[in-house]
Write a structure and sequence with these properties.
Layout lengths: L1 H7 L10 E2 L6 E2 L8 H9 L4 E2 L1 H10 L9 E4 L6 H13 L9 E4 L3 H14 L7 E4 L5 H8 E2 L19 E2 L3 E4 L1 H10 L10 E4 L2 H6 L5 H9 L42 E6 L6 H4 L8 E4 L11 E7 L5 H11 L5 E4 L3 H12 L8 E4 L5 H12 L5 E4 L14 E4 L6 H8 L9 E7 L1 H12 L13 H5 L2 H43 L1
Parallel strand pairs: 1-12, 4-11, 4-12, 5-9, 5-10, 6-9, 10-11, 13-18, 14-16, 14-17, 15-16, 17-18
Antiparallel strand pairs: 2-3, 7-8
Helix pairs in contact: 3-4, 4-5, 12-17
The chain binds adenosine-5'-triphosphate (ATP).
Keywords: ATP-binding, Helicase, Hydrolase, Nucleotide-binding, RNA-binding
EC number: 3.6.4.13
InterPro entries: DEAD/DEAH_box_helicase_dom (IPR011545), Helicase_ATP-bd (IPR014001), Helicase_C-like (IPR001650), P-loop_NTPase (IPR027417)
């Protein structure tokens, strides 16, 4: 008991006295202090009439006399509205800005997440005259530069010349939503791209962002945005990559272009996740200023209030049949099926589509596919043209698709954090939702232990009558045959492509040598 208690105590001193988001209540927009009336209308147009508790808690810290005095670390369940919790105060704070320049940057791990967050900003920022940009690499770098930097398109170059900061190169956006790779491209190569005016940095899905280095984007950002008085202490310099070109973007002594005579504001950071890490060695990388921890309740991990969890126990070899029977039970409700890898996602989706008469539209979504294919699938899923998405963990974090009533773990997740993020694709924004996990008898103990790491929510057995499973046997057998055939075809196609490209490579090499 004592040992268990020790494990749940946050390690960093500032994490020991958090603000409990549970103590806040939803707040109708007309009661929200200081809310710009134009933003109120924009929110109403989004169908929002009150702010969720985490949004009220962040608003209280961000707006008012002590505005953003401290950096904010926010841990709140999936679907609780963290995006608007940071977007709204940032837009309100920037609503009085006079000169357009890049003042807020939101960094996210994937393109689809960045698109999603950009949409939230785009729904409110224009109401107060702010522009939002996206740097994720979905278009050519030249096109992206022309969106972000104000200059004639023909001059959009990617060659950075530190001596040539022509006055007409200005940011076209006040707020930028970016993935780390493309952000680094702009930092290193885009003429006119500068972080010297940055006031707000948001790191969403922080624990995922801290797990990978993503071309050292974080130490680079911190170095570039450190104000000059702090840069006497060269803490991050030794980890900055040598391609580092934009030293000119480091904040200047107390003055900023367009704001002569005014002191440069401290860069405010907001970091968020439903499963925010407590690991000091990770959090220290963020170089937080006097951080304030906002969290929901006492437990290490929390599920959304209206999430129901179920386990479905079956023999491993019968899993596809149980899955189909479950999908039939769910009667075409929107559903995400998670598997453990991109390969099994592809195989399972192909197999399900070979079940004749299923009357459910099923597609796959995984990191194995091209971004354009994934985006198209996601759009169809959002619009209800498909009902079931079979997905690898590419869909696990942050994705918000309206109307997803069920999540199915076809393969049991290895970590509680993965379970939380997967399950969190349903039961969002106070809605109900169900998460089913398919297990064999051997997996039950491991699964129960896994759930105990969270708030020990009950997870009853969901039973499917064996007759409805048995009735699928012959269709399953023929679907399996078709799958084998398809896999064979795909394998030989892959070999052919591999053979062709290796032959082309050899020919190229031969030509190259003969030219020499
Ligand atoms: N005040 C509000 N009123 C009604 N709906 C809201 C409100 N705030 C957010 N929402 C909706 O709630 C859903 C979840 O919001 P959001 O994606 O920001 O959650 P999240 O906490 O970031 O989740 P995750 O941890 O999974 O990323 C979205 O569909 C959003 O439009």
């Amino acid at each position: 008991m004592g040992e268990q208690k020790l494990k749940t105590v946050p390690v960093l001193p500032w994490m020991r006295s958090p603000v409990d988001v549970n103590l806040f209540e939803e707040c109708p927009l007309h009661l929200l202090p200081c809310l710009d009336s134009r933003l109120k209308v924009a929110l109403q147009n989004m169908g929002i009439s009150s702010l969720f508790p985490v949004q009220v808690a962040v608003w209280q810290e961000a707006i008012g006399p002590g505005a953003f005095e401290r950096d904010l670390c926010i841990k709140s369940p999936t679907g609780s509205g963290k995006t608007l919790a940071y977007a709204l105060p940032i837009v309100q704070m920037l609503s009085t800005r006079a000169v357009k320049c890049l003042r807020a940057l939101v960094v996210l791990p994937t393109r689809d997440l960045a698109f999603q967050v950009k949409e939230v900003f785009a729904a409110i920022a224009p109401a107060v005259g702010l522009s939002v940009g996206l740097a994720v690499g979905q278009s050519s770098i030249a096109d992206e530069i022309s969106e972000l930097i104000n200059r004639p398109k023909l001059e959009a170059g990617i060659c950075y010349d530190p001596e040539d900061l022509s006055p007409e190169l200005q940011s076209s956006v006040d707020i930028l939503v970016a993935t780390p790779g493309r952000l680094m491209d702009h930092i290193n190569n885009t003429k006119g791209f500068t972080l010297e005016h940055l006031c707000y940095l948001v790191v969403d899905e922080t624990d995922r962002m801290l797990r990978e280095a993503y071309q050292s984007w974080l130490p680079t950002m911190l170095q570039l945005t450190r104000s000059n008085d702090e840069s006497f202490y060269p803490r991050a310099l030794d980890v900055i990559p040598s391609t580092f070109n934009s030293l000119k973007t480091i904040r200047r002594f107390g003055v900023e272009r367009g704001f002569k005579g005014k002191p440069s504001p401290r860069l405010v950071k907001m970091v968020l996740s439903a499963t925010l890490t407590q690991d000091p060695s990770k959090l220290v990388q963020l170089d937080l200023h006097h951080p304030l921890f906002l969290t929901t309740g006492q437990k290490r991990y929390q599920f959304p209030e209206k999430l129901e969890s179920y386990k479905l126990i079956c023999e491993s070899k019968l899993k596809p049949m149980y899955l189909v029977a479950l999908l039939q039970n769910l009667g075409g409700e929107k559903c995400i099926v998670f598997t453990s890898s991109v390969e099994s996602t592809h195989r399972l989706c192909t197999l399900l589509n070979f079940f004749d008469d299923l009357q459910i539209k099923i597609m796959e979504y995984s990191g194995l596919q091209r971004q354009s294919v994934r985006s198209k699938t996601l759009k169809a899923f959002r619009e209800g043209d498909i009902q079931v998405l079979v997905s690898s963990d590419a869909m696990t974090r942050g994705m918000d698709v309206e109307g997803v009533r069920n999540v199915i773990n076809y393969d049991m997740p290895a970590y509680i954090k993965t379970y939380i993020h997967r399950a969190g694709r349903t039961a969002r924004a106070g809605q109900t939702g169900r998460c089913f996990t398919l297990l064999n008898e051997d997996g039950v103990r491991r699964f129960t232990k896994l759930l105990q790491k969270a708030d020990n929510k009950s997870c009853p057995v969901y039973s499917i009558p064996s007759s409805s499973v048995e009735s699928l046997r012959s269709i399953y057998t023929s679907a399996l045959e078709k799958l084998k055939e398809r896999v064979g075809l795909e394998t030989s196609r892959k070999h052919k492509i591999g053979f062709k490209s290796s032959r082309a490579r050899k020919e190229n090499e031969r030509n190259h040598h003969s030219k020499k």
